[in-house]
Design goal:
Order of helices and strands: EEEHHEEEEEEHH
Strand content: 35-45%
Structural class: alpha+beta
Largest sheet: 6 strands, antiparallel
Helix content: 25-40%
């Protein structure tokens, strides 16, 4: 089936501190356009929403405008700029470099599906509570 949508009329818009995300959902493709303002940083803007220490979304993208720095959990870093095509696995921080808005097209799906959703924080909290309960249960068994 042929499907065509325009990002000018997104299926969903998510606003978050320092930016927003517009998404369209088609069969086999969840596409997002992310717009991040100068001064935006993942740890400050989205960590409270995601409920995780680092961004846990996989990104496959194309940079339209601006610059963004990525730092992986292992310390590896890269700076993205206009025309760059990139793949970034989960476990990273990111921040806008300079005084220009950063605009990215993301084709991986995770950004369109889960990025900057309040439910992320709830799910992370539930997972953490389940892990703590399991650890307590294991500790109790070890004492017996």
């Amino acid at each position: 089936m042929l499907e065509v949508k325009t990002i000018d009329k997104p299926d969903e818009r998510r606003d978050f501190p320092g930016g927003h995300l517009d998404t369209v959902h088609l069969t086999g493709l969840d596409f997002a356009v992310g717009v991040f303002e100068p001064g935006w940083r993942w740890k400050e803007s989205l960590r409270p929403i995601a409920g995780t220490h680092l961004c846990e979304v996989h990104h496959t993208g194309f940079v339209v405008q601006g610059r963004m720095r990525l730092r992986m959990e292992d310390g590896a870093e890269a700076e993205l700029g206009p025309g760059d095509v990139f793949v970034c696995p989960p476990g990273h921080d990111a921040w806008v470099v300079g005084d220009e808005q950063f605009v990215v097209y993301d084709f991986a799906g995770g950004m369109a599906e889960t990025y900057a959703r309040a439910e992320q924080a709830e799910q992370a909290e539930q997972a953490e509570q389940a892990e703590q309960a399991e650890q307590a249960e294991q500790a109790e068994r070890a004492e017996d």
